[in-house]
Design brief:
heterodimer; A: 114 residues; mainly beta; 7-stranded mixed beta sheet; 4-stranded antiparallel beta sheet; 11 strands; B: 109 residues; 6-stranded mixed beta sheet; 5-stranded antiparallel beta sheet; globular
Chain lengths: 114, 109
């Protein structure tokens, strides 16, 4: 089945220790998104890629970076995680990013910062 | 800015009907999505409305009034598996999907 896969499902890191979350998709979609969702809050868009074209949201902290080496994979790098970065990180894809397109989500990675 | 409001929690009995309201004030509107999110899982697409009116899809229906900035998701014949969070999301342009905080629905036997 075509899908969006995120690994790991749970990630524990230490305060200030860099961590990388990964996402892959078999949908062959052009657009990949990273969202941060804190408990009982709305998912918040961090950035998206259209193919290799990177687009950062204005209020995304510099501590968050992303890489998309090919169509299938996208990585979220948190350079120096703080306690406030503990959250669920959701990866999503859409075919071309048009306003009426459905976004397809992965199961998320829950990040715990100790 | 984007402002999307929905109730935090709702409880209903198995077999009943529940209506989840969503009001929005956004800079731009290109349609409204409803997603279902079970605890610890990914949001999954339920419905999309861009024109006023009711869209029915099995036990779930979604309504939109653009002039009022208002939508609702109607869940009929509730089942235990419908216990989940329901997210209202507004598309305000390419790549721009703004979510509400979600409504947690608990279905009781």
């Amino acid at each position: 089945d075509a899908m969006v896969i995120q690994n790991p499902r749970y990630q524990v890191t230490q305060f200030g220790k860099p961590v990388t979350l990964s996402c892959s998709q078999t949908l062959n979609h052009n657009v990949m998104y990273w969202y941060q969702q804190k408990s009982s809050q709305a998912p918040k868009l961090l950035f998206h890629y259209y193919d290799k074209d990177f687009n950062n949201e204005a209020d995304t902290p510099d501590n968050f970076q992303s890489r998309r080496p090919n169509t299938s994979f996208c990585f979220l790098d948190i350079r120096s995680p703080g306690l406030g970065d503990a959250a669920m990180y959701l990866c999503a894809t859409s075919r071309d990013g048009a306003e009426q397109e459905t976004q397809y989500f992965g199961p998320g990675t829950r990040l715990l910062v100790l | 800015g984007q402002n999307i409001d929905q109730p935090t929690e709702m409880t209903a009995t198995e077999g009943a009907i529940v209506q989840i309201n969503c009001t929005y004030q956004t800079s731009g509107f290109n349609g409204l999505f409803w997603y279902q999110q079970h605890a610890g899982e990914a949001p999954t697409f339920l419905s999309y409305n861009v024109l006023d009116g009711l869209e029915e899809k099995g036990r779930f229906s979604s309504f939109l009034s653009r002039s009022k900035g208002y939508s609702y998701l109607l869940l009929k014949e509730l089942q235990m598996k419908d216990s989940a969070s329901y997210l209202c999301a507004v598309s305000s342009g390419d790549y721009k999907l703004s979510f509400g905080a979600g409504t947690t629905v608990t279905v009781r036997a």
